[in-house]
Amino acid sequence: MTIFDLESEVLKLVPKDRARIAQRLLESLDALSEPEIESLWLDKTERRDRALDADPTRAIPADEVLREARSRLA
């Protein structure tokens, strides 16, 4: 079973069961070491950088991002 198969199966569950799995997954991340967390963040930033390089039209101007963030805080 691939990660995509697993994801597809989990998404078929009722919300209560999906929430339980989500909670367990989040709790499992609390046990990560600082180097593991840093590695995950580095991987994520590299993926985002590659995605932006591949399609610059996906970029959102900083002022728009900040405006959206401020509106969510208000």
Folded structure, characterized:
- With 74 residues, the chain is mainly alpha-helical.
- 77% of the residues lie in helices and 0% in strands.
- It is extended.
Radius of gyration: 17 Å
Number of strands: 0
What's the order of the H and E elements? HHHH
Whole-number average pLDDT?
Answer: 94
State the oligomer. single chain
Main sheet?
none
User: Low-confidence spans: pLDDT under 50, at least 5 residues?
Assistant: none
N- to C-terminal separation? Answer: 44 Å
Number of helices: 4
Content of β-strand:
under 5%
Helix coverage percent: over 70%
By secondary-structure content and strand pairing, the structural class works out as: mainly alpha
Overall outline: extended
List the helices and strands and how they pair.
Elements: H1 3-11, H2 15-29, H3 34-54, H4 62-73
Provide the descriptors you would attach to this structure in a database record.
single chain; 4 helices; 74 residues; mainly alpha; extended
Summarize it:
With 74 residues, the chain is mainly α. 77% of the residues lie in helices and 0% in strands. The model has no long low-confidence stretch (mean pLDDT 94).
